[in-house]
């Protein structure tokens, strides 16, 4: 333990300067309660942000099929996390991600009578209209063990670990508060994606392979698609049961695998722009994986990436600090600078001609 700490202290804390960006180590919840009591949104957008997230969490609490006592315990636990200053500085920033996780895992509890019909024909039809053929069908026609493993590694392993690794890199090497922007963009991208998946449910390519264009209903179980071959290859159930009992079975559109990969590429390009081809190569690799494993159509991937670009652009031009390439880590910063939208105006001196 001592050696890693000494390395961290030597390479990072040696750059540290006392400033307003220091972490808050206060444990007194009364300080947070007083701040919350006197809190007023600094802007309409901030008020909308918290209203939307807390409304979504309230909806989750309403549909959650547990007793009032259990709901009270959950509420008490998260009240503790959000009132202790040392913890709340992280959990308030992570609120979009927490809201997404809550909503995703409770999506299957939404009463069937509230849910819209499942579209089976829309995505394959749009795929053919836009791209001339069903790209997922073409890529999944020929399979073998090598391609299965090549698709499994990014889709089934890297996808779940990269967000945490990237968060650590952003915390260490990006300016202070950049991690908040990452949490906001990543959380909103996933949350909005799941909301779209729940309001516009659509069958993935594996459904067409198993059932053709027969009508789908919410009593059906999901499928691991090509990942089922990985379970057979290794001889134990890693994916089949999880996908069969997924909270969002008919969530093909938009692809959040594509959205997550795009978001990761955008933030990695922000951190380490020299390796942009590598980051975007990963996105294209994952695109191939999703279609080869019959989990998404190409139109799903484009929609997921577009959603990610919108969320990233929003934080880039509002809250994401500019990274100074001459700074080594977060502790090197004494002030933060942000994108100046006025300076980006391509025609600042333009004046309309008089009639």
UniProtKB/TrEMBL annotation:
Keywords: Membrane, Transmembrane, Transmembrane helix
An example Gene Ontology biological process: sphingolipid biosynthetic process
SMART domains assigned to the protein according to its UniProt record, in alphabetical order: acidPPc
Residue ranges of every copy of the Phosphatidic acid phosphatase type 2/haloperoxidase domain listed in the record: 179-316
Principal subcellular localisation of the protein: membrane
Residue ranges of the TM segments: 52-78, 152-174, 186-207, 248-271, 278-295, 301-320
Topology in membrane: Multi-pass membrane protein
GO MF term set: inositol phosphoceramide synthase activity
Cell compartments where the protein resides: Membrane
GO cellular component, one term: membrane
Name of the protein described by the UniProt record: Phosphatidic acid phosphatase type 2/haloperoxidase domain-containing protein
Lineage: Eukaryota, Fungi, Dikarya, Ascomycota, Saccharomycotina
């Amino acid at each position: 333990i001592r050696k890693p700490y000494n390395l961290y202290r030597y390479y990072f804390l040696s750059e540290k300067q006392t400033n307003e960006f220091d972490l808050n180590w206060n444990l007194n919840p009364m300080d947070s309660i007083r701040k919350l009591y006197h809190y007023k949104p600094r802007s309409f957008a901030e008020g909308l942000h918290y209203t939307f997230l807390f409304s979504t969490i309230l909806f989750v609490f309403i549909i959650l099929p547990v007793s009032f006592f259990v709901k009270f315990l959950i509420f008490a636990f998260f009240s503790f996390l959000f009132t202790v200053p040392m913890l709340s500085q992280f959990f308030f920033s992570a609120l979009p991600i927490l809201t997404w996780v809550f909503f995703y895992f409770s999506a299957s509890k939404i009463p069937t009578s509230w849910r819209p019909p499942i579209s089976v024909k829309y995505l394959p039809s749009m795929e053919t209209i836009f791209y001339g053929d069903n790209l997922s069908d073409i890529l999944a026609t020929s399979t073998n063990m090598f391609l299965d493993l090549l698709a499994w590694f990014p889709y089934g392993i890297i996808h779940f670990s990269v967000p945490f690794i990237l968060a650590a890199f952003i915390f260490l090497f990006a300016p202070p508060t950049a991690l908040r922007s990452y949490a906001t963009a990543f959380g909103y991208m996933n949350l909005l994606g799941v909301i779209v998946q729940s309001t516009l449910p659509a069958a993935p390519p594996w459904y067409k392979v198993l059932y053709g264009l027969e009508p789908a209903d919410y009593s059906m179980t999901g499928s691991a698609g090509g990942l089922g071959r990985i379970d057979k290859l290794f001889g134990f159930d890693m994916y089949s049961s999880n996908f069969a009992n997924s909270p969002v079975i008919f969530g093909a559109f938009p692809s959040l695998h594509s959205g997550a990969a795009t978001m990761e590429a955008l933030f990695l390009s922000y951190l380490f722009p020299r390796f942009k081809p590598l980051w975007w190569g990963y996105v294209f690799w994952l695109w191939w994986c999703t279609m080869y494993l019959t989990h998404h159509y190409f139109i799903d991937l484009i929609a997921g990436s577009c959603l990610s670009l919108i969320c990233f652009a929003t934080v880039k031009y509002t809250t994401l600090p500019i990274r100074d390439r001459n700074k080594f880590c977060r502790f090197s910063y004494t002030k933060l600078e942000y994108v100046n939208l006025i300076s980006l105006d391509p025609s600042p001196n333009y004046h309309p001609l008089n009639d």
